[in-house]
Amino acid sequence: MIGHVVRRVVAIIPVLLGVSIVVFAILRMVPGDPVVNFYGVEGATPEEMAGLRAKLGLDQPVPIQYLAFLERALQGDLGTSIMSNRPVSADLMHYAMNTFQLAVVAMFFALVVGGGLGLAAAAHPYSLLDNLALLVSLLGISLPIYWVGLILIWVFAVWLGLFPSFGKDTPMSYVLPAVTLSMPSIAVIARLVRASVLEIRTHDFVRTARGKGASDTRILLRHIVPNALLPVITVMGLQLGYMLAGAVLTETIFSWPGLGRYIVDAINARDYPVVQAGVLFIGAVFVVLNLLTDLIITFLDPRLHATGVGL
Fold first, then answer.
1. Which of 3, 42, 105, 256 is the most buried (most CB within 10 A)?
2. Dist CA 247 CA 258 (whole Å)
3. Chain-centroid distance, C-alpha 162
């Protein structure tokens, strides 16, 4: 088990290194100059702009800039924001916590709604209820997040006035962005739960329990649902990572003060340190969630470790 963990942790290193290289290179290829954005087109003398460029290391070759960034990152220094002149790590933790809170609420919605739809569809396969559940899941995975968010704002904030449409002021502010963010996960979890339950219902131990006179409810709760949890746990870890990455659109639409909006504002300002640190942080969270999911699955079902199966 320890060797399995060590191998997975070591495998994270090249992934994060690749993410950092790609982000660093793309930022340098995108048109725009962070120094010009900071001062404005006519806001400083050429000497002042050259001084800031030298201070930021932007006058060095790109490979040298990357090695300097990597050296600082390994020491826990993610740099200083060009626009705010604040340490990126401090702002990153603040905005990441807001995004994490939104993602947890969205995951709760996804589990409750998606799990309920999947169980209802599996309890009545090929019925009208099953078809409606599949239709809802199909729409959830097909509709763009930004379109869903705008429709929810128009219906529930503008027309009905039930929820706020932007900000993070009250608990009610979580509802619309969390529902928007959870829609793709609701679809994935619903389809997975339905397929898992239908497959497990055909196993011998379910037929044995039914032959002993156990009620359908007892069979569902005691035998089917626990055995259907493994694939759902796998999807939960992956979907939470997708939510953190997909929060960029949701937070922009709802003006949510989270990591996604923080990175979007930094991209518009060409704030290189913020964008590099933000994307690297999201990549790190994603691979760590994959690792934790793999370890939980292996702990719950040691047969996967014995056969070498992993995520």
1. 256
2. 8
3. 27
- Cα torsion 169, 170, 172, 176 to 10°: value is 20
Give the CA angle between residues 114, 118, 119 to the nearest 5°.
120
Give CA–CA dist 190/197, Å, rounded: 11
CB atoms within 10 A of CB 294: 20
CA distance 96 to 26: 23
Residue located via tokens 């990549």: 283
pLDDT digits (tens, 9 = 90+) for 2-52: 666 677 777 778 888 888 888 888 888 877 777 777 776 556 677 777 887
Dmax over CA atoms of the chain, in Å, equals 87
Residue 136 tokens read as: 């809802």
> Dihedral of the CA atoms 165, 168, 169, 174 (nearest 10)?
70
C-alpha 124/C-alpha 101 separation (Å) is: 35
Q: CB neighbours of 299 closer than 8 A, spacing ≥ 6?
A: none
Give the integer Cα–Cα distance in Å for 307 and 309. 6
